[in-house]
Specification:
Layout lengths: L2 E6 L3 H15 L4 E2 L7 E8 L2 H16 L9 E3 L1 E5 L4 E5 L5 H16 L12 E6 L13 E3 L3 E10 L2 E11 L8
Antiparallel strand pairs: 1-3, 1-9, 2-7, 4-8, 5-6, 6-7, 9-10
């Protein structure tokens, strides 16, 4: 059975920008996340029944609609971090805007209402850059990557012969965009 999660979508242009930044500024001898798999998780869901999937798809419409009057500001990813246990290096935004917190909280609540367990901890907005990182380099570069967001999706994690691939099941537009500068 496949695993599912809600995540903010990154444009192809943003994904290429992140990969170039990663290769130029970090270039670690670890396993980089494939360009197509870069995303910003909002809520991890795990395995779903058909009924749960249907409820999540319907409920996500309501959550998306609750943001229709919110300004969807670009996200400024400005710090690197490390999860020791899964050995993951990530890029995070220190300042999480209200719209992003509201979206993540709304989707986590929806998951709970659907019978899915959600971790009881503060939301951490991040983009996983590398997996299987055994140790961090002595000095880390400063990060300042601005990412515009215009949609989120329910993603399915698919195992393939070439590795894991994330496929959008359904996407929702976040309509009131505010550009930086």
């Amino acid at each position: 059975m496949n695993r599912y999660f809600f995540a903010l979508n990154l444009s192809h242009k943003c994904k290429r920008q992140l990969v170039r930044w990663r290769e130029t500024e970090l270039a670690l001898p670890c396993r980089p996340v494939a360009e197509d798999n870069l995303h910003i998780t909002l809520a991890f869901l795990g395995q779903l029944t058909d009924e749960q999937k249907h409820q999540l798809l319907s409920g996500a419409e309501v959550v998306a609609a609750s943001l229709k009057n919110k300004a969807i500001t670009p996200l400024n990813f400005d710090r690197l971090g490390y999860f020791k246990r899964p050995k993951v290096m990530y890029l995070a935004n220190k300042q999480i805007p209200d719209w992003q917190n509201k979206l993540a909280a709304g989707l986590a609540k929806l998951a709970q209402q659907t019978g899915l367990t959600q971790e009881d901890r503060r939301y951490l907005s991040h983009i996983t850059l590398y997996r299987k990182v055994n140790a961090l380099p002595g000095t880390l570069p400063l990060a300042n990557v601005l990412i515009p967001i215009d949609s989120f999706s329910l993603f399915q994690s698919l195992s393939t012969e070439t590795g894991v691939r994330y496929q959008a099941v359904k996407s929702w537009r976040l309509t009131r965009l505010t550009r930086a500068g």
